[in-house]
Amino acid sequence: MASFTTSVAFSAIGQSSCEKKVNVSATRYLASNFEGFRFRASVLCDSVGVRASNSTSRRPIQCMSTVTDVPPTVSDTKSNFLKAYKRPIPSIYNTVLQELIVQQHLMRYKRTYRYDPVFALGFVTVYDRLMEGYPSDEDREAIFQAYINALKENPEQYRIDAQKLEEWARTQTPDSLIGFAAREGEIEGVLKDIAERAGSKGSFSYSRFFAIGLFRLLELANATEPTVLEKLCAALNINKRSVDRDLDVYRNLLSKLLQAKELLKEYVAREKKKREERTESQKASEAVTKCLGEQQYVRQ
């Protein structure tokens, strides 16, 4: 399966006592078009408690921070995932998982990040589509648990919130989906909170997983008209252009992944056939050898 392998390189440059710039680049994806999951980020650490004396004696300026203020690195998150799930993962799945965990790490530790159920629905949708056909259901769920725990979040909360949103969306019409603000309910409250935070231009962090969560709501409500997405984005104070762009990346990802899985199936089928042919050939050789041995014994 070497043909499906993708390499991920990490480099840190320009470090000082209070500033650290990290460049993270993901090179090559299954077929090529994975630019949506390539990125460059800069992380600045805060310094507090700086004191300077007014006296003639000179004192060194101290830059102090608590350990809890320093977020884990990408390497820490990836290491936590590998420690939690130690079994090998087929390269076609592992390639994308490694890309996603790096991307989600940067989302998770942004200053404006705040968990919300639509984000959770988006990630669960991506994960379940990615892992379709995985050899073991038990391993698939164990990988999910390890992935979310590595980001220091609650995998059960992701699943529960995603299920609630899916069940709610199935009971909606395009009009009721758009008009959530006029009604009361648990999910309506979630959407109102998102709209309020997104409108404040400071306490909401948009992401591709959020866009995919919106897409899933529309999908389950059979709201296929393009105008419905436009109205829903307006009601949530979300930039529709960003959503359209990220949904295009998502659709392309699914298309490339489907192609890769088909190639993998063909590869596995060929290898299985080769093994069966070798086994049959070996059995035939053993049968001939046994027959010749018996004939030689009878002659003696």
UniProtKB/TrEMBL annotation:
Key words of the record: Coiled coil
HAMAP family: Thf1
Regions annotated as coiled coil: 250-277
Top-rank lineage group of the source organism: Eukaryota
Protein name from the UniProt record: Protein THYLAKOID FORMATION1, chloroplastic
GO terms for biological process, alphabetical: photosystem II assembly; protein import into chloroplast stroma; protein import into chloroplast thylakoid membrane; thylakoid membrane organization
Cellular component annotations (GO), alphabetically ordered: chloroplast thylakoid
